[in-house]
Amino acid sequence: MSSTYLGMPAVPVYGSGNLHTAEPFPVAARRELDNEQLRANLGHATHTIRDKRLRVVAELPDWEELREAGSATKAAVMARLPELLEQFEENFTARGGVIHWARDAAEANEIVRDLIRDAGADEVVKVKSMATQEIGLNEYLEEHGISAFETDLAELIVQLDHDKPSHILVPAIHKNRSQIRDIFLREMPDVDPNLTDTPARLAEAARLHLRRKFLSAKVAISGANFALADTGTLAVVESEGNGRMCLTLPETLITVMGVEKLLPSWTDLEVFMQLLPRSSTGERMNPYTSLWTGVTEGDGPQNVHLVLLDNGRSAALADERGRSALHCIRCSACMNVCPVYERTGGHAYGSTYPGPIGAILSPLLTGITSEENASLPYASSLCGACYDACPVKINIPEILVHLRSEDVQSRRGTKKVPGQMDVAMKAASWMMGSGRRMALVEKALPLGKLAAGPDRKIKKLPGIAAGWTRSRDLPAPPAQSFRDWWAKEHEDTASKEQA
Ligand code: SF4
């Protein structure tokens, strides 16, 4: 399928906003690895969610069929995205909603700011939303004199601590109970000074703090998990009820949603409502699912807006081998099983989207030539655990390898002189292209013993090979190669048989 068929622009428009930071993954990861508290919190939290997920997934005999259905539905949506978007717009508008199209983060932020000003507000309450984090909405609104209050408990903790989320589903996964109590005591003006770190007391403190905001806010901002084209309906899936308060109490509701969140119909929602809660929180059903279709007179928000965000999604869609990254339903199951994420945490990825999905989605949205994100596809051992866990069967390892190849190709194009890696790969290709040449090189391998210490380990290699010995030792080559062993072994067997 060509990019022209999909209605994509000939020159891709890449995304901007909180999709990368100033430092590449290896630099940030090294720093995060030094944080023992972070590693302990992450290890405990990811293992707990992972085990819960395994238990509830095992209850469904048709789990694999559900995954297949989810994957096929998403692929079908991507194949006819322009048509479905138009159908959704028609239905949403017919029910009194207003659609705004935003090409990138800057456009989306401006649209939201103007809508808040039109509503005469200088404060908003927010439902947890990856799309608004991606465009840096809170920071933008603050620069323009508008205060945005996060109402999801974990988002609230992160916001009060002037920190960044570390996990897409559990943004405060890197903080433990006593750290949270300290944040509340420091940042909540009316909090009980005798607050303890028991979960019930912490939740009560947050509830009292937020209740005042819910009752006074004129405008709420949300994301959306799904949008149903056949009715023009939006859906938010959440656990705390804060979303329901934001979606029903204020006069004006502004939703920011990536264009890829569409589903063709209500019946498709049935599949995803089984896949999402089990994969994300390890629950059979999530506590709150809110669905709304335009405006209902006298009931709920009377001004309903939807900002449809591209921000690099068209560019990702135009990449035939990478586009399935847009199937993601943000469940975070891939993060909870990833050995790299478990050790570095989310901040090392430098993007709103961390973990295995972030390692492919961020470079697809910004372009692999974006210097900071070019290192992300290497932030994986390619063990494949993310693919096994993904409820919509995104083949993350395959896309990682594809993006690594794109990265190598793009850097090769800018170099006049071949680099060490190019020369090494050419030499390896020449050597491995002939059994005779390979045998000759193997004969020289035992010389590698000269570089090993008394413990028979090589601790330092030169040039690009130093990357290997920087974090692990290399065993000294054996005195006999496999090829020699095989020849000798079979020679002995042959002579025994002859005898
Ligand atoms: S890539 Fe798959 S497992 Fe990871 S967050 Fe997205 S849907 Fe969930």
Automatic annotation (TrEMBL):
This is LutB/LldF family L-lactate oxidation iron-sulfur protein. Residues 469-499 are annotated as: Disordered. Residues 85-307 form the LUD domain. Residues 325-394 form the 4Fe-4S ferredoxin-type domain. It comes from Arthrobacter jinronghuae. InterPro entries: 4Fe4S_Fe-S-bd, FTHF_cligase-like_sf, Helical_ferredxn, LUD_dom, LutB/LldF, NagB/RpiA_transferase-like. Gene3D superfamilies: Alpha-helical ferredoxin, NagB/RpiA/CoA transferase-like. PANTHER family: LACTATE UTILIZATION PROTEIN B (PTHR47153:SF2). Residues 485-499 have a biased composition (Basic and acidic residues). The keyword Iron-sulfur applies. Keywords: 4Fe-4S, Electron transport, Iron, Iron-sulfur, Metal-binding, Repeat, Transport. Pfam families: Fer4_8, LUD_dom.
